[in-house]
Amino acid sequence: MPSTMLRRLALAILLLGTAPAAAQDAVPAAIEDPRAAKFKDVERGFFTGFEVGYLTFLKTPAADPERFPYAGDGGRSQGISVAVSVGYDLGSRLSLSLFGLGTSQAAKASYGAFDVLAGGLDLRWAFAGVRDRNGWERFLAYAHVRGGYLMTHPSGLFGRRDTLVGGGLGAEYFTQLRHFSVGLQLDGLYALKAKSPGLALAPFIRYTF
Fold it and tell me: Which of 53, 81, 85, 113 could join 99 via S-S bond, C-beta 3.0 to 4.6 A?
């Protein structure tokens, strides 16, 4: 009789020892939170951009007065500018890109119209940002500088070959479409040989891959 009771007691102790392990095996795996973000709301990396805006040169001297004797000083010119860019984000605040810009400018009637094509490098640094309620830095304020090679047509009016430098301030907003951002920038420009300052205002759209 005592041996039977001992066997029953040993069996009870064994069952109690294995019960927690069995209970742990029975716990189901945690379910993934469907609200957790699976993609970045703000993409960074390789991008391409497109801008259409207004550009004006405040001075338009004639580079070749012998070829254009009646041009004189055309004063201020103005026209629509179109630009494309391809670049890469070097971080959340710094980016480097190649740009190409074209504009058709109209000055005084005696001076006429001329076309400008320019291309070069653009360096941009975002000095301020605003986060949304989910913590994504969706709005940026930035400063940028750019410079490159400039060609004009007809050759000898505004110039032939020149160097264009510029820079300014802008604002960019990353939309809910993830890859797309939109913005607006205001630039000061300067054509070195023509010694002509200018201004440009352009909204833009950018796609980040």
Answer: 85
Between 21 and 129, the more confident residue is 129
What is this structure's pTM?
Answer: 0.77
DSSP reduced 3-state for 22: helix
Contact 196, 57 (CB under 8 A): yes
Residue 106 sits at the vertex; the CA angle it makes with 98 and 168, to the nearest 5 degrees, is 40
Please, are residues 171 and 141 in contact by the beta-carbon 8 Å criterion?
yes
Give the bridge partners for 143, in sequence order: 125, 169
Choosing among 3.30.2350.10, 2.40.160.20, 1.10.10.10, 3.40.47.10, the CATH entry for 46-208 is 2.40.160.20
Return the amino acid letter for 79: G
Residue type present at position 146? R
Domain segments of the chain as ranges: 46-208
